[in-house]
Write a structure and sequence with these properties.
Blueprint (H helix, E strand, L loop, with lengths): L7 E2 L7 E3 L2 E4 L2 E4 L6 E6 L4 H13 L3 E4 L11 H13 L5 E6 L3 H7 L7 E3 L3 H9 L5 E5 L8 H10 L6 H13 L5
Parallel strand pairs: 5-6, 5-7, 7-9, 8-9
Antiparallel strand pairs: 1-6, 2-3, 3-4
Helix pairs in contact: 2-3, 4-5
């Protein structure tokens, strides 16, 4: 039986289905917590080509990609229409993390950070990528297609996905941000 879900790709190129706590992939069963993270991916027209490249990199690295558009880089589109879908997927735990691409990354970060539970960071170098995870527990990475360093792209993505949150004093700070987001601040 073959189940096809538009825009969902597994490391092997096959579509996957999710069951509570178990993901089916090529007739093998994996516990979601132990295996592949599902990554939300979205772009506007300016980020479309880079998004395709990032999707390929992610699947080669063993991640499952859920593409929220745009599906065409030839016509001008509005980044909020696609960024909000990916941000909601991360916020609702449909996806574990997300990567958003527009011209500078700034517009996508603005829309993503409007969604409760999202901590989107625009990162331009390896240091900001690492610190966005270690100190801010970012769950969305925003990249500028017009300014990305192509030579470091794969390294940035790998670093962002593999860097743990340090917790400790940083957890207290992230909790304060979440409290403000929830209307509880002093």
């Amino acid at each position: 039986m073959s189940i096809q879900t538009p825009g969902v790709f597994s490391p092997s190129g096959y579509s996957c289905i999710s069951l509570p706590g178990v993901r089916t992939l090529n007739s093998k069963y994996f516990l979601e917590k132990d295996m592949y993270m599902k990554i939300a991916l979205a772009s506007d027209h300016r980020g479309y080509e880079l998004k395709k490249r990032i999707a390929s990199v992610l699947t080669q690295m063993g991640y499952t990609v859920m593409d929220f558009g745009t599906m065409n880089g030839n016509e001008s589109v509005d980044y909020p229409d696609f960024g909000i879908k990916a941000a909601r997927a991360v916020s609702t735990n449909q996806c574990d993390r997300g990567i958003l691409i527009c011209g500078t990354g700034i517009g996508m970060s603005l829309i993503a950070n409007k969604v409760k539970g999202v901590r989107a960071a625009v990162c331009h170098n390896l240091y900001t990528v690492e610190m966005s995870r270690r100190h801010n527990d970012s769950n969305m990475l925003c990249i500028g297609a017009d300014i990305v360093d192509e030579e470091l792209l794969e390294q940035k993505i790998k670093l962002w996905l593999e860097t743990p949150f340090d917790g400790g004093r940083h957890a207290r700070r992230v909790e304060k941000i979440m409290n403000i987001e929830n209307g509880r601040h002093s």
